[in-house]
Amino acid sequence: MAHYLLSFSFAAETTRKLVAKPEDRRRAADKALRAVGGRLKDYYFALGPHDAVVIAEMPDNLTAAAAAMLTGSSGAFTHVQTTPLLTMPEAVKAMRKAGKASKSYRPPGR
Questions:
Q1: Residue 24: strand, helix, or coil
Q2: Euclidean distance between CA atoms 3 and 42, whole angstroms
């Protein structure tokens, strides 16, 4: 399965609810991901432009889009961003493929 980074920011009401009644959101996130055909790998709260990030496994981009739509349409978030990830073995394959094709590309001005 492919890996994805899901980054999101909580709506103010969601933050108020989490502060008033703290809860571990991993189970809810995994349930939602499994409902569309994926699964949770890990869930982190974050400091920076997003409030939390999830690493998920999903079979394809269609499933990743469905997960983003499911969570985004809930109203609990102000921003949801989905980033496809490559494992290191996948990245090495991409590097090799680029290396084989490198003679075919002429940079601008050369």
A1: coil
A2: 11
What is the rounded CA–CA span in Å between residue 97 and residue 14?
44
Classify 2-104 by CATH class. Answer: alpha beta
Residue 103's pLDDT band (cuts 50, 70, 90): confident
Predicted confidence at residue 107, as pLDDT, reads: 85
Query: Which tokens in the block code for residue 10?
Result: 């909580």
Question: Domain extents for the chain?
Answer: 2-104
Q: Where are the alpha helices (DSSP H) in 41-81?
A: 61-72
Q: What angle do CA 63, 67, 69 make, to 5 degrees?
A: 115
Section 45-60 average pLDDT: 96
